[in-house]
Description:
Helix content: 25-40%
Number of domains: 2
Number of helices: 14
CATH architecture of the largest domain: Alpha-Beta Complex
Pfam family, one: NAD_binding_8
Keywords: Signal
Protein name: Amine oxidase, flavin-containing superfamily
Mean pLDDT: 92
Number of strands: 20
Oligomer: single chain
CATH topology of the largest domain: Polyamine Oxidase, Chain A, domain 2
Strand content: 15-25%
Low-confidence stretches: 1-17
Radius of gyration: 23 Å
Signal peptide: 1-17
Largest sheet: 7 strands, mixed
Shape: globular
Amino acid sequence: MRSISALVLAAISIAVASIPPKNDLKHQHFITRDVAIIGGGSAGTYAAIRLRQMNQSVVVIEKEDNLGGHVDTYTDPATGAAVDFGVLVYEDLPLVRSYFGHFNITLVKVAVAGNATQVRADLRTGTLVGPPPGGMLLALLRYTAQLTRYPWLNTGFNLPDPVPEDLLLPFGEFIRKHQLDGAVDIIAQFNQGVGDILNQTTIYMLKYFGLDVVQGLATGFVQAASHNNSELYGAAERELGPDALLNSQVVNTSSYGDEPWTYLEVASGGGVRIVRARRVIVAIPPKSDLLQALNPDERERRLFDQFQNTCYYATLAKIPGFPPNTMVVNRANETPYQLPPQPSIYLLSPKPGHLTSILYGSETPMTEAQVKQDITQRVLTLRNAGMPVDPPQFVAYSNHTPFLLTVSPDAIRNGFYDELNDLQGHRRRYYMSATMNTHDSAQIWTFIEHMLTEHFE
């Protein structure tokens, strides 16, 4: 694992003096910044670069040894070739092109479908599965018409009162109500990591598979010309320089009523540094167990404790005997819309260097060993479909849990997101993770643009 273990962090925080009493502050050496950003994934990195462009000083505190979050890239030790197996493509939006252009990174157009031969198989048995129901184009048009009814879904959760009841339906009911059956298969291929798609609340599914994604299906998406999406984060890391504290984690925070600062105790580089910041951006999932070091107050904890999450895992493997240029979509023969019950593989996709990307989801947490064991068993069922495969040889693994954070329809109906939005600025903290919009880099960056304009300019 790339993370500093909790045991090491605990030992460091015990061995080194923590945030000093207020009377001793003038004798301390601090890393003093306008903004401290907790988390160096898609949200935290973008916020850092944009704030620097706005002439504000920043420090990014990231627990891994690199920036990028769910952008996973494997470098083949034999050839040096980069292979993405986390985030793959982006919507072709001016904001996306501007961000990559800031680092002089060339983008190229890509079609998600590519030219691989698609095989639909039930990976519980290896049985081949027939094509999805027809009428996809007409269903997508109906789906798009539904999206245009709720333009405020594009950025954040600024919901009307009352929230439209359609948005609070289980997604399966929403599909049946509006005759969207033909679009379920393509939506499921994009809305990976969300658990049981038919039982998820509709508002989250519409945000994940939004208007910009539908447009991308028609006109194409973009990715780095190098086919290495970590190039963006490597460039950001170089620009931030010492302002990117990698292998670092906040272990405690303090503030004083008459001081305009938040003090963050950060385990980093084998010791503890004290960061002093006027404001703090939280760019990690706002769950209470992940934010203990921020000492959430009762108001914050009451909201964060309501979140549930799904689990999502990305792996890369060599599968001897797996047919080249073949994509396997996991489907089932006897379930609604042929969607496989979880936990399950979503997709096996061909990658350069005879590698295969394997995306896997569950509704409850699983260990790395459990995920790999189940993937192996399911891949071997392909022998029943005529593929002479051997067990996968895993070369990379990434755990994206907790993934989609959701609350109940009743909580949404009763104003949960109004209360969550009201936390922006509370205790000089601002929340900008995917949870505040959706798991889509372009949409995260769009949301952050609105937040920085409103609160930081």
